[in-house]
């Protein structure tokens, strides 16, 4: 959603803050700002647009000081403008605040504060925070921040500075991520680990409802009653390069090519040669009683859930329902203690998915989280956590997170099947061996990336592209369509092949581009009939096919290696990811930071 940073120590804060914000820009890039405290005065600089605009605005000699906070914004309340940019200050200019999240009762608080004589300059929800702290401030900053926090509903990760307290930054979190980086005679605060990784590998992961008083020499954590909290240091193991581009033009391309390794790493959490099937984070006895599984997620994670439904039902005979989190939480889902709720979230911070988790736990469900971020809010609140080991996914368009989520769901299906006996030992072993081939098969598909670059050039001028598939291929078609639209801005729809004749085929005309995914021999004939339906109406059709499928009805084909149809989604999505990437690059789009989007949607 937004990125926040803080620094306090012996060095000049400005460059350290800007460096930290650069690592967080993927969280939002509508505007940015920093505040530095020196000799009892707050120096604030803010700029609309990309972080580079702020860097350009903070000339040499300006913003000198060794304590500061910074922010990169994804607008939720108030358009991207200087007035709406963070840091926000109180009228006296003695308090500066950066915030990630949404203060849901900001209108009510604004009314209260205006009745007390406070005047507002922005349209944001955040601006209530410095005024509220000002209202409660009586000489002790932590106390004022805690009193203000008690009034705030919604989500926040904040850093607060006060001119009377140049020796400290007060930080707090509720439903938005926040970490404290531990240095030598200096300390850092940030929304996410990559922002501090260049400076330190040792961090505190703040929990909801916790406060940190950060000075150059120590960090003290408290609960809302000011009771001290002891927290063990989390030592970060992934290296800084993992969060950099490694020579690729874009994070997205790097992350597409990281998939063989990401899949290999994630497989370790469930299957290994000669080892019994396990499922990290879950003791079978804890879920042996479940009668139904509910998978809930958003976007790409939801598409992974659709594959998971198909595979888990087929291998375990357990009924599985899949729902979009923002719908699930507002309907009346029939769930109870015999339901296992599986939430899938790359970031582990998606507000709707987190809300679904909390709803399920209130209903007595056990919750299993599949997430890519250690210590994320969803990871901490779930009863069980299976981590996908994809490494940091920086590009807004999710790629390696999707395929590793599939691995997690395959692993869960096999784990359950083995314990429930719905697969024989020999069948389990066969499925396991096929899963262990996936990293190699993925690498093999990626070797043909250049052919997709050539194909992509055919579609640069298209306004509409349709995706078709049946069964698991339909779930893949949905994900392929999302990839295309979110980075190339080309309108795209995905349809179950058999659904076209019930209406959508009216859209097909001469030259319409259709991408058909067909990887299952059992459904091939039906799919070919659907393709013929659009071809006779003038469509151009690209087939994403399993080796050996005839190319007769297609204008172009991309062949995948032979694979168990259950695992075909892991391979079939790769050409669709690459096609979307090359089309977006060909159109000159900002692939890693598409317009209107952010990497982690921590608001409803
Ligand atoms: C995927 O390419 C999108 N960026 C988006 O749909 C994303 O999958 C969705 O917001 C869910 O995010 P999460 O996995 O972090 O919960």
Query: What is the helical fraction, as a range of percent?
Result: 25-40%
Kindly state the number of beta strands.
Answer: 25
User: Biggest sheet, in brief?
Assistant: 8 strands, antiparallel
Q: Name the CATH homologous superfamily of the largest domain.
A: Aminohydrolase, N-terminal nucleophile (Ntn) domain
Kindly name the structural category: alpha/beta
Radius of gyration: 25 Å
Strands of the largest sheet, in order across it? 3-2-4-1-10-9-11-15
Between the first and last Cα atoms, what is the distance in angstroms? 11 Å
Ligands bound to this protein structure:
2-deoxy-2-amino glucitol-6-phosphate
- CATH topology (level 3) name of the largest domain: Glutamine Phosphoribosylpyrophosphate, subunit 1, domain 1
The CATH architecture classification of the largest domain is 4-Layer Sandwich
- How big a fraction of the residues is strand? 15-25%
Low-pLDDT residue intervals, each spanning 5 or more residues:
none
Integer tally of domains: 3
Question: Total helix count?
Answer: 19
């Amino acid at each position: 959603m937004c990125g926040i940073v803080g620094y306090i120590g012996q060095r000049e804060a400005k460059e350290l803050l800007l460096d930290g914000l650069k690592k967080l820009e993927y969280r939002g890039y509508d505007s940015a700002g920093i505040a530095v405290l020196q000799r009892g005065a707050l120096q604030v600089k803010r700029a609309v647009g990309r972080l580079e605009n702020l860097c350009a605005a903070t000339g040499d000699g300006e913003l000198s000081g060794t304590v500061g906070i910074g922010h990169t914004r994804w607008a939720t309340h108030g358009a991207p403008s200087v007035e709406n940019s963070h840091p926000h200050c109180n009228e006296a200019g003695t308090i500066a605040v950066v915030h990630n999240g949404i203060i849901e009762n900001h209108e009510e608080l604004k009314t209260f504060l205006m009745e007390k004589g406070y005047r507002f300059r922005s349209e944001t929800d955040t601006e209530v925070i410095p005024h509220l702290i000002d209202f409660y401030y009586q000489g002790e900053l932590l106390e004022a921040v805690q009193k203000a926090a008690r009034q705030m509903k919604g989500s926040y990760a904040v850093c607060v500075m006060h001119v009377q307290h140049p020796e400290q930054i007060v930080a707090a979190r509720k439903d938005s991520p926040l970490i404290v980086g531990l240095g030598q005679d200096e300390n850092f605060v940030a929304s996410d680990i990559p922002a501090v990784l260049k400076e330190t590998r040792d961090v505190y992961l703040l929990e909801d409802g916790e406060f940190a008083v950060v000075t150059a020499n120590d960090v003290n954590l408290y609960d809302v009653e000011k009771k001290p909290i002891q927290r063990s240091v989390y030592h970060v193991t992934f290296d800084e390069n993992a969060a950099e581009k490694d020579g690729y033009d874009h994070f997205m391309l790097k992350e597409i090519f990281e998939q063989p390794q990401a899949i290999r790493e994630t497989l370790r959490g469930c299957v290994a040669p000669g080892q019994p099937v396990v499922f990290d984070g879950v003791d079978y006895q804890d879920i042996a009683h479940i009668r139904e599984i509910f998978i809930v997620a958003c976007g790409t994670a939801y598409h992974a859930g659709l594959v998971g439904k198909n595979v888990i039902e087929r291998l375990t005979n357990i009924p599985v329902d899949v729902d979009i989190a923002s719908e699930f939480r507002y309907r009346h889902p029939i769930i109870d203690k015999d339901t296992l709720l599986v939430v899938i979230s790359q970031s582990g911070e998606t507000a709707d998915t987190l809300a679904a988790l909390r709803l399920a736990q209130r209903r007595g469900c056990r919750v299993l989280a599949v997430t890519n971020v250690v210590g994320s809010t969803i990871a901490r609140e779930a009863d069980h956590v299976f981590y996908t080991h994809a490494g940091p996914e920086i590009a807004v368009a999710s790629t390696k997170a999707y395929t590793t989520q599939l691995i997690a769901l395959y692993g869960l299906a096999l784990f359950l099947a083995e314990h429930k006996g719905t697969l024989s030992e020999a069948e389990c072993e066969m499925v396991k061996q096929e899963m262990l081939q996936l990293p190699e098969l993925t690498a093999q598909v990626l070797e043909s990336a250049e052919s997709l670059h050539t194909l992509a050039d055919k579609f640069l001028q298209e306004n509409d592209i349709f995706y078709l598939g049946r069964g698991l291929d339909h779930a893949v078609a949905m994900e392929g369509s999302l990839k295309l639209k979110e980075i190339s801005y080309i309108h795209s729809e995905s349809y179950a092949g058999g659904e076209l004749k019930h209406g959508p085929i009216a859209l097909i005309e001469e030259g319409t581009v259709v991408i058909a995914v067909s990887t299952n021999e059992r459904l091939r004939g039906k799919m070919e009939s659907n393709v013929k339906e659009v071809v006779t109406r003038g469509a151009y059709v690209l087939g994403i096919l399993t080796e050996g499928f005839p190319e007769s009805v297609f204008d172009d084909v991309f062949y995948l290696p032979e694979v168990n149809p259950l695992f075909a989604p892991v391979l079939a999505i790769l050409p669709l990811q690459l096609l979307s990437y090359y089309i977006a690059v060909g159109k000159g789009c900002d692939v890693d930071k598409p317009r209107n989007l952010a990497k982690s949607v921590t608001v409803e």
